[in-house]
UniProtKB/TrEMBL annotation:
PROSITE patterns: HTH_ARSR_2. InterPro entries: ArsR-like_HTH, HTH_ArsR_DNA-bd_dom, HTH_MetalResp_TranReg, WH-like_DNA-bd_sf, WH_DNA-bd_sf. SMART domains: HTH_ARSR. Keywords: DNA-binding, Transcription, Transcription regulation. Residues 7-102 form the HTH arsR-type domain. This is Helix-turn-helix domain-containing protein. It comes from the Bacteria.
Amino acid sequence: MPDDEGHPTVEEIELGRVLSALADPLRRRVVRELAVAPEGTARTCASFSLPVSKATVTHHFRTLREAGLIHQVDRGNSRMAGLRRADIEARFPGLLAILTAE
């Protein structure tokens, strides 16, 4: 069962949802940027400078969170997003390496 913030447990991360989330090039870009950053890196959603409206940015990050690819934490009036690297590798070994090889 996802937590109160919509983060699924490791066991609930499903391949179909992950692939659906990664089908969008902007969401792939977010995951790639987090994957090549040092372990434990968290960034604000605005720091990715996605060329879409604020509402669409919110939608993209909610999709990534609900798929289990990122973890989000509120920090004041912004949200920090970090990659769930260990959880993704546990469920789908090699997926992040494929994404960063593009």
